[in-house]
Amino acid sequence: MGIIRQQTIKGTVVSYFGAILGLINTGILFPRFLNPDQIGLILWLGAITTVASQFSSLGFNSVTARLFPYFRNENRNHNGYLFILFWVGMAGFFLSLLFYFLLHPLAVHLYNDDSPLYLDYLIYLIPLVFFTLFFSLFDGYNRVMYDAVSGTIFQDIVFKILNMSIIFLFWIEVIDFSQFVFFYVLAYCSPAVFLFILLWWRGQISFASNLKFVTPDLRKSMTSVSLFGILNGLSDKLANQIDRIMIVSYIGLFANGIYGTMANFGVLVSMPARSLRKISSTVIAEAWKRKDLKSIAQIYSSSGLHQFMLGSLLFIGIWVNIDNVLEIVTDRFVDGKYIILFIGLGNVIQMLSGVSGVVIQASPYYKMQTVFMGGYGLLVIVTNLIMIPILGINGAAIASLFSTFVFNVSKYLFLLKKYKLQPFNFKYLLVILIALVAYFSGYLLPKMDWFVFDILVRSTLVGVIYLLLTFFLQVSDDFNAFVSKRLGLR
């Protein structure tokens, strides 16, 4: 657990610094200097890029996470694994490029009415998909080098600082919107370049081949994991991005700009889970290789509790400040108020499940994760088809919450039945009770005139009450030990 704790703490710090930068960009600067339809365009390009690059990876991130331990050998350049990884990525990219040119006439037909904000920027999908694809592949490779933080730094900090600079140039009218999009795309592509340079500098880049190492049995396993990884990863990205794509289709870019801006506040809740999933995937894969179910159970149980503790604190911290959030984003986004509630609750549920998906993905029953992810993706699409026409952007958020709940309950029941893994206990109820007490303490506080001061006072009150109750009710031995050590109580 040492390396998981160390990397998770580092990754969480980096993620939240990045989240602050992202909040400044998308929560403060975007709403003030861009129109909602322009924001909607940026988010739409990002959603298409995410789904297309996931498809282009051909499921090979799953191969890296699950089977790289069999290739690991520093003295032999990990038996040519990077050579295979690179050419699989190139094959996937050319496949996506083929689909781009085949579907381009359809896009012209579908979005002809909005051509100034769609068709003029479709060409940017080519570099966006290429660099996002290889960032994903190299980041997966970097993680199995036991570095889950560097990729996060490049993606969550470097990119967002560059983005902030571009917004500033747009604000002072040095560049127009078309130039803004051009520089935004360059910044979006930069993390892949920086990560490649880092790996090269460390001497971890070698494209030497060693195909003889790939025995028929290993090739069969790689093909199987890759095929299921395609379905698994694509379902995941569809589940997370399809709402933005469907909102554009049903309502338009303006609504997508409101939805995406407000959803970003709800997504803040899940930031710590990203680093934990990244580094735990490698450790859990090694544990499955050793058939060490005890270590897996410990990681599964501990991750769920600590993620739920942190997720609940972040959720109540955001929701107790909802009026302040609306002041930050301006009145143009008031229709998205409850998007934060539903998306935030969905992310709390996601964190409550801990690393259940990683455990299943690395287990002998890894194919079941594909079944769950496929069902999740399908459920998100179906519920969005039903809810968006009825409730608009709030319907998309409710669809996401419902689908996330069903998805995580399914994973929990599977691990309980197959491996008797049961992470829940009375401490989870304590977390809910503590969260309610802390929330209503902040909710009952009178509203102050200046929203910045109100955020500081209200958030401090909620945080102090939450952390004190968590400590004195001994919800987590790890948390109490950490606090006691820092305060010199032990």
Please describe the topology of this protein.
Layout: H1 2-33, H2 36-56, H3 60-71, H4 77-110, H5 125-143, H6 150-171, H7 177-201, H8 216-250, H9 253-267, H10 271-290, H11 293-319, H12 322-329, H13 337-352, H14 356-362, H15 366-391, H16 393-419, H17 426-443, H18 451-472, H19 477-487
Helix pairs in contact: 1-6, 1-9, 1-10, 2-4, 2-5, 2-8, 2-9, 3-5, 3-8, 3-10, 4-5, 5-7, 6-7, 8-9, 8-15, 8-16, 9-13, 10-11, 11-13, 11-17, 11-18, 13-16, 14-15, 15-16, 17-18
Q: Assign an overall shape.
A: globular
Instruction: Provide the structure class.
Output: mainly alpha
Task: Give a quick account of the main beta sheet: strands, pairing sense, barrel closure.
Answer: none
Helix-strand sequence: HHHHHHHHHHHHHHHHHHH
Strand content: under 5%
| Total separate domains | 2
CA-based gyration radius: 23 Å
Mean pLDDT: 83
Counting DSSP H or I runs of 4 or more residues, the number of helices is 19
Could you explain how this protein is built, in words?
- 81% of the residues lie in helices and 0% in strands.
- By secondary structure, it is mainly alpha-helical.
- The chain has two domains: 423 residues, no CATH class; 66 residues, no CATH class.
- It starts with a helix and ends with a helix.
